[in-house]
Amino acid sequence: MAEVVYKARPDAKGPNTLDTRFIDEDVPFGLFPLEMLGRMVGVPMPLHTAAIDIFSAIRKRDFRAGNPLLELLHDEFSQRGLLFDALQKGYVAN
Asked: Which of 19 and 2 is assigned the larger pLDDT?
């Protein structure tokens, strides 16, 4: 798709390689949190999972390990009820 866009508009601004912040930031801080939340509430996220796996393979990097904030959240909200309580009532970190 990127190749088609580039051929149609070679002057368009945007990344021209896979070494871009759009992958480096959006996968660990966008796709992965959504995949994790889906897992926590029992909602499969197959396209998110596939995208994370593909980008991790292409870049030879574990994007799931690239977000240090999620480990803290996962430990804190590992039970579905705790997550829903925090979403409904608010959350104050210890």
From this structure: 19
